[in-house]
Every structure is written in C-alpha cells, then in structure tokens.
Protein 1
Amino acid sequence: MSFIVFLLFFFLFHSSIIISVVSKCSKSFECGRLGYLEFPLSNSRGCGLFTVHGCDSVNPTIQLEPGGQEYSILNISTNKFLVKDHSLQSLLDTNSCFSFINLTLPKYPSISFSFSPNLTMFECFNETYKSERGRYFENYLNYTCSLIALYYSFPTANVAPPVPNGDGLPSQCHVIQLPVKSNYDQQSPENVFDLFTSEYTLEWNLSEQCSECQRGGGQCLTNDIGEFECKR
Ligand SMILES: *[C@@H]1O[C@H](CO)[C@@H](O)[C@H](O)[C@H]1NC(C)=O
Ligand SMILES: *[C@@H]1O[C@H](CO)[C@@H](O)[C@H](O)[C@H]1NC(C)=O
Ligand SMILES: *[C@@H]1O[C@H](CO)[C@@H](O)[C@H](O)[C@H]1NC(C)=O
Ligand SMILES: *[C@@H]1O[C@H](CO)[C@@H](O)[C@H](O)[C@H]1NC(C)=O
Ligand SMILES: *[C@@H]1O[C@H](CO)[C@@H](O)[C@H](O)[C@H]1NC(C)=O
Ligand SMILES: *[C@@H]1O[C@H](CO)[C@@H](O)[C@H](O)[C@H]1NC(C)=O
C-alpha cells in the first residue's frame, strides 16, 4: 500500500515538474512597438527557436543562434521580419571586399531562412582563368575588389545569358547571394556597394516535423547539440 502511495506521489511530483517547465514558456509575449510576438520567437531561454532582446527599448533585436549576431527588428509579420544587419552595414560602409560572401544564416533541422530581395552573383579568384571567364560571363557586369572578380547581371538586362546554375562554372568561381535594394536594377550606381543593403526581409519556414509538434501542443525546440526536439 505504502509503495502505491509512494508511486502516486512520485508521478505527481514528476508531472508537476514537467508541467511547470512547459508552462514557463508563454504562448505570446509583448514586445514594445512590435506588439505581441509568438513562436518561433521567444523572450526566454529554453522556449521558442530564437530569442528577442530589448523589447522594452526602441530597438528590439533578435539573435538567430546562441552567441550569434544581433539583428535589429524593424518590422515583423507572420513568417518574416525586416531586419537591419549591422555587421553587413559596416562592411558596406567601408567598401570592404568581405561584403562579398554569403550571409551566414544558421542551419537548423526545425527551421530554414531565406532573405530577399537578393542578387545572385559570381565571385571568382585567381587571374589565371580570366579569359575563360570572359567568355562565360560575356554580357555580365564585373567589378574587381582586391583579389576577387565579381560578375553580376540584372534581371531586366535581357542581354545576359541564362543564369548559370553552378554546374560548369569556370574554375575558382562560386555562387553568392546578397541582399539588394528593392529597386536595384533600375539604377546604375557609380559604386557597386550601393546596390546592396543591410536592411532585408528574412523569411522563416518551419520544418514539417516542427509544425506538427506545435500543432500537437508541444514545444518545438533545438537542443544543445542543434537537434530537433519536441517537448511535451
Ligand atoms: C510593416 O509590415 C506590415 C505588414 O507586412 C506593413 O503593412 C507595414 O507597412 C510595415 N511597416 C513598415 C514601417 O515597414
Ligand atoms: C533569394 O531570393 C529568392 C527569391 O525570393 C529565394 O527563393 C532564395 O531562397 C533567396 N536566397 C537566399 C539565400 O535566401
Ligand atoms: C592560379 O591558378 C594556377 C593554375 O591552377 C596556379 O598555378 C596559380 O598558383 C594560381 N594563383 C594563385 C594566386 O592562386
Ligand atoms: C570586366 O569587363 C571589362 C569590360 O567588359 C573587361 O575589359 C575586363 O577584362 C573585365 N574584367 C574582368 C576581371 O573580367
Ligand atoms: C552561397 O549561398 C548560395 C545559396 O544558398 C549557395 O548556392 C552557394 O553555394 C553559397 N556559396 C558559397 C561560396 O558558399
Ligand atoms: C518550407 O518547408 C517545407 C517542409 O520542409 C517545404 O515542403 C516547403 O517547400 C518550404 N517552403 C518554402 C517556401 O521554402
């Protein structure tokens, strides 16, 4: 008998711990001028997929991964936000050739990101292959930045050949995508850095697994080793 009582207490105790952990994650939270935010955003550790800071300030920020960079949130809607990427801004401000690398957006099993509008470009190294590239990127605009040759075209420039898909690219050339101003192809800037912008729309897409977990009343989380976890 006392064993059954013990078991009963044991289970009561445990289930109350589980309930208190999950219920600590509120369904939504108020975030200043951004209004009420909800999953996958959160304002406390261990809840949601990424954390919003500074809700009581004029400049709330978001961190897409623990210890990662903070983006200012300028606006938000159902599955996207308009962010300001301060580290890209400082690269663009200084006309740095390091601007021409892919944005480092985190890769998680539960959620994927894309940014728009973006421009696909080709970044090539090593002058040795210049003539080969000249043929391949005929009609493309080019810009040389230190050791990098950048080739790009505008969707409205119908002189450009079909965008190469990465197969058969000339040696030592890579595809990169960077956020561009929304009217970028309407202008011919003196400075190629003026095409780009540090304010872009970041859109997220939950994996099927994660959406299912949420629909089923669980908490879709990323555990300490970056794996999907559905906490119930
Ligand atoms: C914020 O987003 C909403 C919905 O997408 C849009 O209607 C509004 O114009 C945006 N506001 C700003 C300041 O961009
Ligand atoms: C670039 O924009 C296109 C069209 O909006 C989108 O499909 C693609 O995922 C974007 N690229 C990145 C790296 O976000
Ligand atoms: C460029 O490529 C050629 C041929 O592969 C190689 O011999 C040369 O060292 C490379 N130059 C640089 C600067 O990497
Ligand atoms: C860039 O384009 C100009 C004019 O089309 C061409 O003369 C030059 O060789 C190109 N530079 C590179 C690095 O491809
Ligand atoms: C940059 O991102 C694009 C789109 O995600 C990808 O196709 C490409 O391989 C990436 N380039 C490099 C150099 O990682
Ligand atoms: C979002 O993710 C789902 C499931 O992984 C996928 O089927 C869908 O095509 C994605 N949608 C976009 C817009 O990337």
Protein 2
Amino acid sequence: MSVMLAVVLWRSGLLLSFLTACVCLERDCVLGVVGRPVSLPCSLSPPPTPANVTIEWRRDEDVVLRSEWTQDGGQVDGWSVNGASIAAEAVLTGNMSLQLDTVQPSEDTEYYGLFMVSGENHTSLCSVCLRAAASFSLPLLQREEAEQGDETAFLCHSSGGFPEPSVYWLINNTEEPTGGSVSTLAASLPDSHLYNVTSHLKVNISKDANVSCVIENPTMNQTLTSTSYGVKAETVIGRASQAMWIFSTALCVVVGVMVIVGVAYQINLDRVSKRKKKEYHQYMSRRPKRRPSREEETQTMKPQSRETDV
Ligand SMILES: *[C@@H]1O[C@H](CO)[C@@H](O)[C@H](O)[C@H]1NC(C)=O
Ligand SMILES: *[C@@H]1O[C@H](CO)[C@@H](O)[C@H](O)[C@H]1NC(C)=O
Ligand SMILES: *[C@@H]1O[C@H](CO)[C@@H](O)[C@H](O)[C@H]1NC(C)=O
Ligand SMILES: *[C@@H]1O[C@H](CO)[C@@H](O)[C@H](O)[C@H]1NC(C)=O
Ligand SMILES: *[C@@H]1O[C@H](CO)[C@@H](O)[C@H](O)[C@H]1NC(C)=O
Ligand SMILES: *[C@@H]1O[C@H](CO)[C@@H](O)[C@H](O)[C@H]1NC(C)=O
Ligand SMILES: *[C@@H]1O[C@H](CO)[C@@H](O)[C@H](O)[C@H]1NC(C)=O
Ligand SMILES: *[C@@H]1O[C@H](CO)[C@@H](O)[C@H](O)[C@H]1NC(C)=O
C-alpha cells in the first residue's frame, strides 16, 4: 500500500487527499474473508524517528487502535477495539500493519488509515481499503421434468457466500432462457450474515437441452457453474426403457412362438385324427361286417399310437 509521507493538516486538505488516495487504490483493496482474520499492510521505511510518538489506526473517522511509544521504542499506552492489534516492535521495524481478528460482513468497501498524532496535527502515513467477501459453495442443480406439457423446472442452490451474488441461467451454454420464469432469493443467514441463494427456473425447452446455473461473486473473482445435461439424462432413461422394451419384445416372441407351435400341433392332431376316422369309415364301409370287434379295436388303437409320435 502506498505510504503517504506528506504532512497534511487534518482540518484542511487531509480528507480530500485521503479520499483520492483510496479511489486510486480501490482496485488493490485487501480482500478479507468474512469471519477470518486479516492483515492490513503498512510499512514505513525508514521507521518513524525515535521519539515519543502516538499513532492511530482509524476506520473512516473512528479510532480502532491507539498506541503511544517512547523514544526507545517501548509501548507506554494503548487501546484497541474488536481485537485490532499491531506488532509489538512496530515502531522499530516500521511494520505498522494492522491485524483484525475477524472480517465483518460489510457490503461497502471500508477505508482504514494510519495517522501519526502530535498535538492537533495528524500525519497520514498509510491508507488501506478492505473488501469483505466469502466463497459460495458449488451450486446444486436439480431438474424436474414436467408430468405434462414441455415445461421443465430447475432448482439451483448455493450457500455460505458474501456479498450477495448475481445468479443467471444459460441454455445450451450460451443463450439466456427466453420466455421462462426465473425467481431468485438470497437469504442472509442470521449469525454469519453470509448468503444462501436459491433460484428457480421454469422454462419450456426440449429434453436434450443443457441447462446451466451460474453464480457470480465478482468480489471473490468467483464464477461457479453447474450444468444439467439434458442428453445424458435422457440416455439414462432411454437405456432403462430400451431394456424393458427388449425384455417385453422377447417375452412376446417366446409366447407367440409357443402359441403358434401349440396351434399347429392341435391342427395337425385334428387333421390326422380326421384322416384316420375317414380311412376307418371307408375301410369299414368297404369290408363286410363279419368280425367287427377285433378290426375295430386295432384300427382305433393305431391312430392313437401315431398321434403321440407327432
Ligand atoms: C518522552 O516522554 C517522556 C515521558 O513521557 C519524557 O520524559 C521525555 O522527555 C519525552 N521525550 C521527548 C523527546 O519528547
Ligand atoms: C508485518 O507484520 C505482520 C504481522 O504483524 C506480518 O504478517 C507481515 O508479513 C509483516 N509485513 C512485512 C512487510 O514484514
Ligand atoms: C503542527 O503542524 C504545524 C505546521 O506543520 C506546526 O507549525 C506546529 O508546530 C505543529 N504542532 C505540533 C503540536 O506539532
Ligand atoms: C443455507 O444452506 C445450507 C446448505 O444448503 C443449509 O444447510 C442451511 O440450512 C441454509 N440456511 C438457511 C437459513 O436457509
Ligand atoms: C450438452 O453437454 C454435453 C456434454 O458437455 C455436450 O456433449 C453436448 O454437445 C451439449 N449439448 C448442447 C446442445 O450444447
Ligand atoms: C409452457 O407451455 C405451456 C403450454 O404448453 C404453457 O401453459 C406454459 O405457460 C409455458 N410455460 C412457460 C414458462 O413458458
Ligand atoms: C439446445 O440444444 C438442443 C440439442 O441440440 C436442441 O434440441 C434445443 O432446441 C436447444 N435449445 C435451445 C433453447 O436452443
Ligand atoms: C480471476 O480468476 C481468473 C480465472 O480464475 C484469473 O485468470 C484472474 O487472474 C483472477 N483475477 C484476480 C484479480 O484474481
């Protein structure tokens, strides 16, 4: 971070130069993860001249740390808020970096400044800006095919991030859904002030379309994408129904063959027995009926034995 060595009067030009310094530094803000410690860097080279000095770290107008040092670099007095601290040998080494215990979930950029206090005079030594952020979890994406019609519902959920992200949907990796309905809700968790975000998409699309949910957290330089692959989902279902189809077809074929064989067998039986009866009647009508009992027996026996051969 830049070290401002120029002595500026607190009541006149200080605020202006403070603001301009931070506008220039906006891009180089320190990124603090919400709930974790962070160090706001400030190095003075050379270290402040060995003298009785009082330094103050301020967040905007509020003093967060005040410390008095003697000529030999010993700390004589000091206090801080929310566990803010600087190294014990800060004045000797020139490393005046401010340690913060936990980063607060602040939506706005926070500006911190280090000042040397001498009576009414404040000398600005460092300015640092801090951005609070936290990573979102990889979004969970659920796809629900409609029971009727073409409308498909999607649900996208991600948790534990900061600040509030922007959420959008992509179809086939490029176009945003047109004519669909999107509703997105970001809920701030009561304890951590982190966000859970849930987005619903209802859209009429073909089943083979890929649908992606994108969560963007520019502060974290984070873009998370989850995709529901339409084609893949369909082939899984397709394979299952294909297996069922093959099974039922095979079953039908087997049953059909059995029926045909049974019918053919029956037809053949009928034909053979008819022929035998006819032959028998012809035979009986041609022959004189002298010894009918034995002939009849043998004739009726024969077709039966033949039938079982078929
Ligand atoms: C520093 O402070 C001590 C006591 O607070 C005082 O005795 C000493 O003269 C001061 N030194 C300077 C250079 O102001
Ligand atoms: C300054 O001190 C802090 C710890 O107090 C340390 O994390 C940081 O690396 C130091 N910076 C330099 C430039 O030595
Ligand atoms: C404050 O700064 C002014 C101008 O730089 C100087 O004349 C004055 O002596 C300083 N006051 C103290 C208490 O250091
Ligand atoms: C936030 O999301 C997480 C993970 O899905 C869940 O366990 C938690 O209950 C959610 N909290 C709220 C307040 O919705
Ligand atoms: C969907 O995603 C799969 C896997 O990345 C890809 O092979 C396919 O071409 C995509 N389909 C479309 C329509 O973009
Ligand atoms: C989808 O199409 C159905 C009719 O097929 C219509 O009732 C419904 O409103 C459409 N939904 C969207 C989100 O366009
Ligand atoms: C997405 O790709 C699939 C497969 O190529 C296609 O059937 C579908 O119409 C596409 N959807 C859109 C909205 O472009
Ligand atoms: C942001 O992420 C992209 C890709 O992950 C990387 O190329 C880029 O350097 C990152 N930018 C910052 C400022 O971290």
